[in-house]
Design brief:
With 376 residues, this protein is of the alpha/beta class. The protein is built from ten helices and 16 strands. The chain has two domains: 270 residues, TIM Barrel; 89 residues, Golgi alpha-mannosidase II (Immunoglobulin-like, Sandwich). Strand 10 and strand 11 form a beta hairpin. The protein binds alpha-D-galactopyranose. Alpha-D-galactopyranose (GLA) binds next to loops.
């Protein structure tokens, strides 16, 4: 059974885009998964995005761009497997991919079989150039059936940008994750829009086997790469990772994993945050409430965990001042007098036993992720 917890891995798009994707990058990223400890932390799928393909099919089949992938695709999948990792690829439900390469429309069975022959483990399936009057759920179902018919377990990642409410139908087409929004950019504005605003109310649709996908991580991009948009501060990247973990979002790294910054390592490899994301209960976090003080917003998000504790994020979304963000037991469904032990999940520090409420002072755009464990 695939995707019983949110998928974890890396995808080439955020950093390498259409221009800089090459076999060397992929092979070196696979090596970095081992040397940087990403594999040990749970990251598994190495996924190549658009522009791996040649411009034309050969005998009706997709084939690779020989300049970029001189030895083809299968050796890379084999290399990933030899390191205990999984390999993913990209195609599109339309006649062409977003980069104008051949799409899978009308070739679903052939392409699914090609991917299975190459021992691919993951398909990201995009939505450019879908012919007018086509019905997205039908097209995604066709590919879902074609993948199943190969007999190979291939994780199916649906990318139609949330245009047709995929959270309502993507799981039925065989999807294991589905984008809920357009593309993320490396900016706080984008994280606010895609992460905080557009995920509100989506939590009932996610769970083991099928996850809402607010797009790949921009942590560690620091204003460089294909989705550059000014970059984020350390506090903003911290809030981004904290929120994605609470959202039970797929954790697909988007930075250059071969050259991670110290901050990217610190965030992406935090075992307590990853454990929240991968918690077996599989509940997606929801927004408990929003507080406004002097025209600045503060969000509280909560994710119930399998052991009866609750992971909570206190986020200062305001731009100018440090805020005291309060969180009451009542808002979380806990009895006021219930003693609860609180742990800072970034550091592991014990913040003591509290009743009724807890608050923390949070700098602009920063956050604190805590675990609240009710005591008997
Ligand atoms: C779309 C997707 C992106 C990426 C590009 C590739 O924009 O949303 O994630 O896959 O296409 O062309």
């Amino acid at each position: 059974m695939l995707a019983q917890t949110p998928p974890m891995g890396w995808n080439s798009w955020n950093t390498f885009g259409w221009k800089d994707l090459h076999a060397d990058v992929v092979q070196e990223t696979i090596d970095a998964f081992i040397s940087e400890g990403l594999k040990d932390a749970g990251y598994e799928y190495v996924v190549i995005d658009d522009t791996w393909q040649a411009n034309d099919r050969v005998d009706g089949k997709l084939t690779w761009d020989e300049d970029r992938f001189p030895n083809g695709i299968k050796p890379l999948a084999d290399y990933a497997h030899s390191k205990g990792l999984k390999f993913g690829i990209y195609s599109c439900a339309g006649t062409h991919t977003c980069a104008g390469k051949p799409g899978s429309f009308g070739y679903e069975e052939i392409d699914a079989q090609t991917f299975a022959d190459w021992e691919v483990d993951f398909l990201k399936y995009d939505a450019c150039y879908i012919p007018a009057n086509s019905h997205n759920p039908t097209l995604y179902k066709r590919m879902g059936q074609a993948l199943r018919a190969t007999g190979r377990p291939i994780l199916y990642s649906i990318c139609e940008w949330g245009n047709h409410q995929p959270w309502e139908w993507a799981a039925e087409t065989g999807g294991h994750m589905w984008r809920t929004t357009g593309d993320i950019e490396d900016s706080w504005k984008s994280i606010l829009e895609i992460g905080f605003r557009k995920q509100i109310g989506k939590h009932p649709y996610a769970g083991p086997g099928g996850w809402n996908d607010p797009d790949m991580l921009v942590i560690g991009m620091h204003g460089k790469g294909n989705v550059a948009a000014g970059g984020c501060t350390d506090a903003e990247y911290r809030s981004h990772f904290g929120l994605w973990c609470l959202l039970a979002a797929p954790l697909m790294i988007g930075c250059d994993a071969r050259h991670m910054s110290p901050l990217a390592r610190e965030l992406l490899l935090n075992p307590r945050l990853i454990a929240v994301n991968q918690d077996p209960l599989g509940r997606q976090g929801y927004r408990v409430g929003q507080v406004e003080y002097a025209w600045e917003m503060m969000d509280v998000w909560a994710k119930p965990l399998a052991d009866g504790s609750i992971a909570v994020g206190l986020f200062n979304l305001g731009d100018t001042r440090t805020q005291k963000i309060p969180m009451s037991w009542e808002a979380l469904g806990l009895h006021d007098r219930r003693p609860c032990q609180i742990t800072n999940l970034w550091t592991g520090d014990d913040l003591g036993v509290h009743t009724r409420s807890f608050f923390a002072e949070i700098a602009p755009h920063d956050s604190l992720i805590i675990k609240i464990t009710p005591q008997n």
